Structure formats: structure tokens, C-alpha cells
Amino acid sequence: MQLLAVRCRVILTHASKRSCYALNTESGTQWQQAHRSKTTNPNNFTDYDSLVHLPKPHIPPLFNFAKDVLDVWETTEKAGGKSSWPALWWVSDRNEEIRWSFEELGYYSRQLANVLIDECSLVRGDRVLLILPRVPEWWLVNIACLRTGTVLIPGTSQLTTRDILHRLQVSQAKCLITDESMAPLMEAVTPQCPTLTSKLLLSKKERLGWGNLTAVMGSASAEHVCVDTRSDEPMTIFFTSGTTGSPKMTVHSHCSYGLGLTVNGRYWLDLTDGDVFWNTSDTGWAKSAWSSVFSPWTQGACVFTHHMPRFNTTTILKTLCRYPISTFCTAPTAYRMLVQEDPSRFQFQALEHCLCAGEPINPEVMSKWRELTGLDIYEGYGQTETVLIAGTFKGMEIRPGSFGKASPAYDVQVINEEGNIVARGTEGNLAIRVKPDRPFSLFTEYMGEPEKTADCFRGDFYLTGDRGIMDQDGYLWFVGRADDVILSAGYRIGPFEVENALIEHDAVAESAVVSSPDPVRGEVVKAFVVLTSEYKHRDQNELIRQLQTHVKKVTAPYKYPRKIEFVDQLPKTMSGKIRRVELRKKEWGLP
């Protein structure tokens, strides 16, 4: 892997007059200042109830995260107004380190912005497909696209040639940036992509047909004037997979993520410029935009990242011991694996705040992590299309199995099929109110698919596609994706509650619950179970009886899995979420 050779620092004279939340109005100033009360716990607000009454922020006509946030932190940093932690702290799998200040981020990203304009001939609105692992240049490309007004399309390095071809063709990307490992896959499909005009490669050596990213940056000027982008102008596109059809192009504006993710950084992550924050998400997913770019940098926090080509529990635990990481966010699947390593054997250097997102976390895992580390896990719920929809916040009672209460970004309700709010305690569709005022932190559209965009809305609400319950105290409880709910003999059964019951048994390492056809009940609950090592050679028929009896004891008996199949592993998406749809198709004999 080639890292930038130049490490010089420069003094830049330009400083934006707009604040890091782009607030020039009285109402905006109140939003930013009224909630800076610093109690011991939390840092950025007094309690959850104080968040409910936040004034609506003023959204300026022009906003650019690079100019209005990063450059402001650069100016603050040079004036000695923030902590000494770097803006970006990168560690390789060989324990090499790079630490960049906001000033250095500004210098290198301005160089790269000039490369995009001068070498790649890109103009505002052009699209850039970026496929890089967790290397410092990934962050520079993010910022350079902001500075030039080009639209970033992140992708994971696990994409196949078919995936890459689809993304290049439907997005009409003009520029492609990747590394040596992905170059052969790209070269196999780029002749079929007529809009693609430039390719940049992060590599130690030259490759025919590619510009060398390090070389062209080394000779580029660091003088660049950031584009004044409109708040509603497209900023990034994420390809979002559904249960059917090709992935959709989810468009976010400079406002929706650049401003909207302040809610995540300030209130859910509860970051300040004195925090070192590690989010383990892969660079191809919206969670990286959430928690490795916008959320922490709105607060001036240090973004810590470990290259870690493959997920490794020991590496994670040792890294938490070796570095002053105060806030840590990873997937529920990762926590399930981490508790099996007994984290009580490790002395974390500075860890105070643990979070998870991506899918529901089992109460048993939360309890085990707390038992072994003394730390709670704060759950967050959101989508590529949104910022944080709901979560557990510091100072709030954590109710295992619930993902907390609505975030200050949205009015979250549970509605029926007609779009009406249902009574508390009643299952329905999790939804966000969009009328009379559409939240600025909601996605713009599924590009080129107006019908699919329209399908997300019902009456006054945006439909998340998830089913849930809101209790009398406003806590939200996940039932399942609308497609995952099981209808058996007149009962509605959410897969997650059955999975929660199963994982409480010592034999279960992981499970996935889906519907299975039944001639009498129409469909029944079936569980695919991955056994823990000590149970793998036990009598399977006896284990099935034990697990069925266990589920009947810990939840309503009608929910128990009438069918159980033991498997070595569960099918998962590239981001680690269980693909229940694949198991369901197998059960029903669907293609």
C-alpha cells in the first residue's frame, strides 16, 4: 500500500466565516449554543427530554462540509482552540501510524481537489466511484469531492465485476479511484462504461491506463477555493440493496448528511474535540459516512481507524488497550464475537462509551459485555436513507431489546397500513413524519426510480420498511423487516424475539429465524442455528428438543421454532447483516 510521501504542513490564510453548523441566524445559534451544557455524563446535553425540545435549525441556502466544518476546525486548531488529538489517526496491520491534523487534511485534500479538476477534468456534479479499503487516502477523496462539488459514490472492495459494472453504468460515473487489488476487476468492465473518462490508482508502481494517485498529488498545488455548493445539491450516492431487484441509488445532499449527522455526533455518540473515536465499519457503507467522516468531525473529534483487512477480535481488543480510544462503535455481530473472547482479560486504556448499529443487538450480548467490561452498549437505529432515527442516549435508561427513543432529527411514529398512528403497544410500521415539514436529514430520492421513491411514503410519513412497537414510555422495539415477519396460524411473529430467546441458551452462537411452509398453519417458525464449539458434537435431536423447550419458557409458547436446522454459518451481507431473505427463499423453494 502506498501512502502519501509528502508530510509537510502549510499555513493557509483562507477561513470560512460560516460556523461548523453553518448557522448565521439567531435560531441557528440557539440550536448550537443552547445545548452545550457540560455535565459529567453526558457531555453535550442534560437529558433525553432536553433533546425533544430542540429548536429547528436554520438551513442556509449554501453549505459545504469541507468549507463550513473542516476548514473551521483547521482555523480553530491553528489558534490553539481545540485539543491536541489529530483529526485522523490511522494504524496499519503492521502497527505503522499516520496522524493528520485538520491542517494537514486541508492541505492534502486541496491537492487532491486540484487533481480531480486538472488531471481528471471533472466539473461540479460529476460522479466519482471510490473503492478503497481503510487507508488515509479514502478520507482525502471524500473531502476532495466535497471541495470540488463532485458526487462521491463509495463502494466496498468485496464487490464483484458484475457489481462494479452495474454501478459504473447506472451512475454514469466519470472517474474511478481504487487500488492494485481491484484494478484487474475494473479493467474487465471499464470498456463497457462509455462515461468513464479517468482512472486513478493508489499504487507504488505505474499501471498502463491509470493515473498514479500518489504521483499526481505530489505535483499538485495545495491552493484551492472550495465550491459554494447548495444545501440541497447532491453530495453522495450509496447503492442500497433490497430484498428484490438491483440495488437502488440513494442520493444524499450536502445538507442531509453534512448537517444532519450533527445529531449523531453530538447527541448519540456524545463526542467532543477531546475524544478519540473508532468506528469499525467498512468504507463502502453509509455507516462509514455516518461515523468515520461527518458525525465525529462536526464535533472536532479524532477519527481513529485500523486498516485491519480482516475482522479479528484479538486485534480489536488489543487496539482498545494500546490506544486512547474513548468511544467505540461496531456491529452487533462483532460484539457477539468479542464477548466470546472474554474482554475482561484486557485493560482498555480510555474506553468510556460503546455503541452499536446496523442490526438489533441481542439483550444477552449486551448483558455479557456489561458483565465483562463494566460498560453499557448504546444502540442506534437508522438507515442509508436517514441519519439516526432512534437510539439509546447517555443518561437514558437502557431497556434490553429496545433500540431507544426517537432522535431529535425526526418525529418517529408507528402507523398502520392506512398511514394512521396506532395505539401505544401495538405493532405497526416504523415511520418518520414528513408533513407538513420534510426533515432536511432525509435522503433526496432513489435516483432514476421515482416509483420506488414514491413507494417509501404513505400519507404524512416515510416508511422505513421495518415493523416495530412503541411502548407507553416512547421506547421503540424492533419486530423485524416487514418482509421478515412470520404469519403462523393467525399469529404474527417477529424473528428477532425468537432469535433473542435462542441466543440465551449456551448451545447457540448465532441464529436466524424465518418462515417455513406448513400444510396446516400456512407457515411456521424455522430457526437456523450455529452451535457453540462445546455443543457441536451433541445429539442433535436432543438439542432440538432442548432449544424448543427453552424458547417456550422465555417467550410466548406459540413463537417457538417448530423446525430447527443446524448450520456451520449463516449467510450475511458484505456489511455483516444476516440475509434472512436467502434462507427464506431456500425454505420456500424460490429462485
UniProtKB/TrEMBL annotation:
Q: What name does UniProt use for this protein? A: medium-chain acyl-CoA ligase
Its cofactor is: Mn(2+)
| Keyword annotations of the record | ATP-binding, Fatty acid metabolism, Ligase, Lipid metabolism, Magnesium, Metal-binding, Mitochondrion, Nucleotide-binding, Transit peptide
List the source organism. Answer: Ictalurus punctatus (Channel catfish)
| Xref: PANTHER family | ACYL-COA SYNTHETASE MEDIUM CHAIN FAMILY MEMBER 3 (PTHR43605:SF10), ACYL-COENZYME A SYNTHETASE (PTHR43605)
Q: Start and end of every AMP-binding enzyme C-terminal domain?
A: 497-577
- Encoding gene (name): ACSM3
Query: Where in or outside the cell is it found?
Result: Mitochondrion
> Where is the major localization of this protein?
mitochondrion
**Recorded GO terms, molecular function?**
ATP binding; fatty-acyl-CoA synthase activity; medium-chain fatty acid-CoA ligase activity; metal ion binding
Its top-level enzyme class, in one word, is ligase
Q: Where is the AMP-dependent synthetase/ligase domain?
A: 79-433
